[in-house]
Amino acid sequence: MKKTAVIIMVLSISSFLSAGTASIGSVISYGDLQIDNHPVRTSGTIFDGSVIETGSGAISSADVRLNGNVRLTLHSGSRGTLYSDHLVLFHGEAELDAPPSFRTEVTGLTISSSEPRTSGLISIGRDGVVNVSVQAGGFRVSKDSGLFLAQVSSQKPLALSPAASGEWRVGNGWGEGFDGDHDHCYHDDDDRDCDHHHHHHPSK
After folding, report:
1. Is-contact 118 98, C-beta < 8 A?
2. Which of 40, 60, 61, 194 is deepest in the core (most CB within 10 A)?
3. Is 118 a residue whose pLDDT tops 50?
4. Concatenated DSSP letters of 130-196
5. Are 48 and 30 in contact (CB under 8 A)?
6. Where would I find the H helices in the chain?
């Protein structure tokens, strides 16, 4: 009886551990790659909450395939935490091909597909500017609070910059910075649109 009880207990523990560590996808590495601070040479398995970090070399990248038909690539110098339904991007850039059920969280923003299938690029600059561009489909950008900020299409890439006042400044993303009348911003504390007070620049 005791032997049977021990076997049942071991099987129960094994089942519990397997259920708690179910794979959510796989990754193929190019150049330097770490998963949860462990070097990965060629390929690896991703679990819910895995931290992926690519090296700084030009060829370093990680091609990720998640259950649910989600594909993404973390390029050189990127770091993020992967879950079954979202990516938390800390720095670098991620190229995504995903359905609306998958989202990306970055510095207080939530970026999700607004079309049945969307592919595009999300990156964080050294100055904290979040750049969002679309190859196909569309992205919806909102604050973590749920306030809608912008719609991104293939004809309208966006750059979003956090201002010291707690606002989000939204530029057109074509490399023109945030100068000009197209620039507008949103308060981060009370969800007020602050489009009525643009950042003015001295006359030239």
Report:
1. yes
2. 61
3. yes
4. EEEEEEES-EEEEETTS-EEEEEBTTB-EEEEE-TTSEEEEE-SSS-TT-STT-EEEESSS--B-TT
5. no
6. 2-20
Cβ atoms 83, 118 nearer than 8 A: no
pLDDT digits (tens, 9 = 90+) for 33-59: 999 999 998 999 999 999 999 999 999
The residue type found at 80 is: G
Nearest-angstrom CA–CA distance, 127 and 88: 18
The domain made up of 23-187 is a member of CATH 2.60.120.1440: yes
DSSP 8-state secondary structure symbol assigned to residue 167: E
Contacts of 90 (CB under 8 A, 6+ apart): 79, 80, 81, 124
Residues in the chain: 204
Against a cut of 0.85, is the pTM above it? no
Bigger pLDDT: 197 vs 70: 70
Amino acid letter for position 93:
E
- Cα 121 from Cα 112, distance rounded (Å): 12
Give the span between the Cα atoms of 109 and 83, in whole angstroms: 17
Query: How confident is residue 165, by pLDDT bands cut at 50, 70 and 90?
Result: low
49: left (phi over 0), alpha (psi -120 to 50) or beta: left
**What's the pLDDT tens digit per position in 12-24?**
443 333 345 789 9
